[in-house]
Write a structure and sequence with these properties.
Layout (H helix, E strand, L loop, with lengths): L10 E4 L15 H11 L3 E6 L11 H4 L6 E4 L10 E4 L1 H4 L15 H16 L2 H17 L6 E7 L2 E6 L4 H5 L1
Parallel strand pairs: 1-2, 2-3
Antiparallel strand pairs: 3-4, 5-6
Length: 174
């Protein structure tokens, strides 16, 4: 058992891409390795997809590491209302009984209708696939830029970050 785990460890929670940290993408195989350790120790694999939500499913574990998370927490991109949802396997969701868990907008008909419409648009307009295609092209073009100001260009799909050698604020303001 890894030293970070104890017999009381029930879950591993992480962001497949750390957005606020500057579009930090773990090295290939990291998440798959973490999942293997979790499976060996009967620890739930939970991914925080609050920022990407279903609007960027190309980020989530099954798409990039060939594994399935037990729980995926989604939100902002799912609907244009304050809604946070947890997606999980039937085995996990069956643990919850009516009244065990509540939320501010849980079961709100408008929030649910907006979320269903958002999912329908994602599927019908192939937004995940288009994001992957356009992101690949965009990253290639950005990486071709030769500038002493650019330290690194990284991303997945259209979730792209450019790291500079100096403060970015003056560029943003310009």
């Amino acid at each position: 058992m890894p030293s970070a785990f104890t017999p009381n460890t029930c879950g591993f929670l992480g962001e497949p891409i750390q957005s606020e940290a500057g579009i930090v993408i773990p090295p290939d195989g990291f998440l798959r390795g973490a999942a293997e350790i979790c499976r060996q120790n009967r620890v739930l694999i939970m991914v925080d997809e609050i920022q990407s939500g279903l609007g960027h499913m190309g980020n989530c574990l099954p798409m990039h590491e060939g594994i399935q998370a037990d729980v995926m927490i989604v939100g902002k991109a799912l609907a244009a209302v304050s809604i946070i949802r947890m997606l999980a396997s039937k085995e996990i969701l069956c643990v919850f009984k009516p009244g065990d868990h509540g939320s501010t907008f849980g079961g709100n008909p408008l929030a649910c209708a907006v979320a269903r419409a958002a999912i329908r648009v994602l599927i019908e307009e192939r937004l995940v696939e288009r994001s992957a295609e356009q992101g690949k092209y965009f990253l290639k073009q950005l990486r071709a830029i030769r500038s002493s100001a650019v330290k690194d260009v990284r991303g997945r799909g259209l979730w792209i970050g450019i790291e500079l050698h100096k403060a970015a604020r003056p560029y943003c303001e310009a």
